[in-house]
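Worked example 3 (structure in, sequence out).
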């Protein structure tokens, strides 16, 4: 089992920045991919960014968001700059293990005011 805990969400004005953190515990040695997804009210959960050696970003956040990982701390981060009101959502951390099992955090709310 892997447990994920996100932090760092909050309320920010458009153009501002936030840094999300996700700390993994449990069978962290089995994790090979970590990433971020988000879900806005009334919408489906969508991919934001992932890291497994290479990094991948959704087109909507490329150039503004940066994903990074600290393996020593079993943590992944999402630096979000130039935030827009449409970035408002609950952000979820995901970890995928070598067995193909996905684990999710409880989510952290990001609200961007215009």
């Amino acid at each position: 089992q892997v447990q994920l805990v996100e932090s760092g969400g909050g309320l920010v004005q458009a153009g501002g920045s936030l840094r999300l953190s996700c700390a993994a515990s449990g069978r962290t040695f089995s994790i090979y991919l970590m990433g971020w997804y988000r879900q806005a009210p009334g919408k489906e959960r969508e991919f934001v960014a992932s890291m497994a050696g290479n990094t991948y970003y959704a087109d909507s956040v490329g150039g503004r968001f940066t994903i990074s990982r600290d393996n020593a701390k079993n943590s992944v981060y999402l630096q979000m700059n130039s935030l827009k009101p449409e970035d408002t959502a609950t952000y979820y951390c995901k970890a995928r293990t070598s067995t193909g099992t996905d684990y999710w955090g409880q989510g952290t709310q990001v609200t961007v005011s215009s």
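Notes: The mean pLDDT is 96. The CA atoms of residues 3 and 25 lie 5 Å apart.
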